[in-house]
């Protein structure tokens, strides 16, 4: 089977600063300021061409960080990422310029993908129609609601026909009808054998749509396997986790981090 994604020992380190002053000093002086924080730590995972992989994990487990690394939006600190084809990320705030209008954003994104003027002219009406933004398409994106931004992002990403589609929580904002239309588009891609990564807190959508599940916990891979293998375990964990007190959650996190 041909691999679409190969992630080897990927870590992502952020620096956490107590004050802005520390951030500036860290940049301009040789002395180190701030605290290292690993949003991802030695993550390994592979996806075959045509796989539909769901990323699950509690808040802050690293799902968006990994999605952004796969889409080439943020760089990994260490490790390697191999992407076979063109990846396109759909997330509420991904890659849209707030100062520009929706139409300008479409043109900019298509130009950045290397499309020529004729191809852009051909695609633009389809994207605008899919987005259902009508006259808002000529308003600056900063005036859009999160649902409208998501619709624009979704409409651009699905119409540029990417090899790998990464959808990060984009269906959780906006109205039900648009989410339905988007899910249908994703099903079309599934039938075409495209590789997809799907990040969602909705286990129902995961079950309906994904074949494999990558479970992240505090930046590490907790489990990776078929939906049937992994999702029931994650569901059981979630039920227990939700019932924990604040202190129990902190203890659980600390125990997990010490085990590393
Ligand atoms: N730019 C950044 N600087 C510092 N820390 C960051 C940055 N981006 C993310 N993080 C931290 O990295 C961790 C992982 O965040 P990420 O958004 O990837 O998690 P997630 O699983 O997508 O969470 P959610 O389900 O809440 O969207 C979090 O603790 C977050 O605070």
The main sheet orders its strands as: 5-6-7-3-8-9
N-to-C SSE string, H for helix and E for strand: EHEEHEEHHHEHEHEEHH
CATH 2nd-level architecture of the domain at 1-85 and 199-260? 3-Layer(aba) Sandwich
The 3D shape can be described as globular
**Oligomer designation:** single chain
Q: What is the highest CATH level, the class of the domain at 1-85 and 199-260?
A: Alpha Beta
Bound molecules: adenosine-5'-triphosphate
Largest sheet: number of strands, sense, barrel closure: 6 strands, mixed
The CATH topology of the domain at 1-85 and 199-260 is what? Rossmann fold
Distance between the termini: 32 Å
**Unreliable stretches:** none
Task: Walk me through the structure.
The protein contains 9 helices and 9 strands. The protein has 260 residues and is an alpha/beta fold. The protein has a domain of 147 residues: P-loop containing nucleotide triphosphate hydrolases (Rossmann fold, 3-Layer(aba) Sandwich). Helix 3 packs across helix 4 and helix 4 crosses helix 5.
Can you describe this structure in just a few lines?
Residues 5-243 form the ABC transporter domain. The chain has nine helices and nine strands. It has helices at residues 20-28, 63-70, 102-112, 117-131, 146-159, 176-191, 203-209, 227-243, 246-259, and strands at residues 3-16, 35-48, 52-56, 78-83, 87-91, 164-168, 195-199, 212-217, 220-226.
